[in-house]
Amino acid sequence: MSDLPRTPSEQFDDRTGVVWRRRRADGLRIPTVRVVAGPDLLASYAIYPTERVIIGRDMECDLVLSDDSVSRRHAIVEWKRGKLYLEDLGSTNGTSIGRAGVVRPVELPQGEVFYVGNVALRIDPMTIEEIQHLERVAHRLTQASRDDLTGLLGRGWLEQQLPGLVARNQLRQTPLAALFIDVDHFKQINDTFGHALGDQVLRTTAQLLLGTVREGDRVVRYGGEEFLVVLNHCDRQGAERVAKRLLHSIRTHQWSAYVGDEERSLAVTISLGVAVLTPDESHEDWLQRADMAMYAAKGSGRDRVMYADEPVPA
Asked: What is the tally of helices (H) and strands (E) in the chain?
């Protein structure tokens, strides 16, 4: 494409049959798949000639979406005979253009909204400069919602994403559970073994939490030694099972191996509070109930689970 003139013109790509347009000083415009609404609003992927874009929740996809209505590998957009086509990959919640479900590959005009699960997307022509700007903004927001020490989601995620997740689950009447978690006696760990080992305890706790919950669940470092786990499509019984697994995972980990001193041992436990979202509850009230349950677990001896104001046997 480097031989495009600097004046308004068109160039035909004989590999795809696509006419690429250069408009004034805007530069070459590339068809770009963009999310047009919802938590993944800034997600996008430029479709260069001969390329295809796999859309889904799996981190290996080209365009990764976080909405729980999206399958791991949901849909694909690709060039065929100089046109863009949309194809469903056997998803659970389907792919559609408008109200028409996509069963086999269909042509996808630029500018027309299509749906992957409940996520609305559109193909817009964008300059390289516009694409790069969008990527920079998305990257800054992603970094802002991540915790530097653990790599988990941070408080920014609670402000940007959680309200939408709560609203969607309440609308669909699907259960959502919160687990508030506190590392027991963490100040004592810092005072006894030093802050470097304390940081390692937090990083390892984060890894153990991530390794215990499902891929679609969210793990957030709430602050200090406190964590929040949001369990999607999970009722009270399911939340209790997860909470007990988390207790066991932290309790039985070989923590003393981090100390490097046979004369000193390290044991780490956690206290958990569990709350299931109610139909008309705000996300703030929901999290507060889980937080109060966690403090009740700490007050009743630690290394245990409490369900809202009611104890759950550990």
From this structure: 7, 19
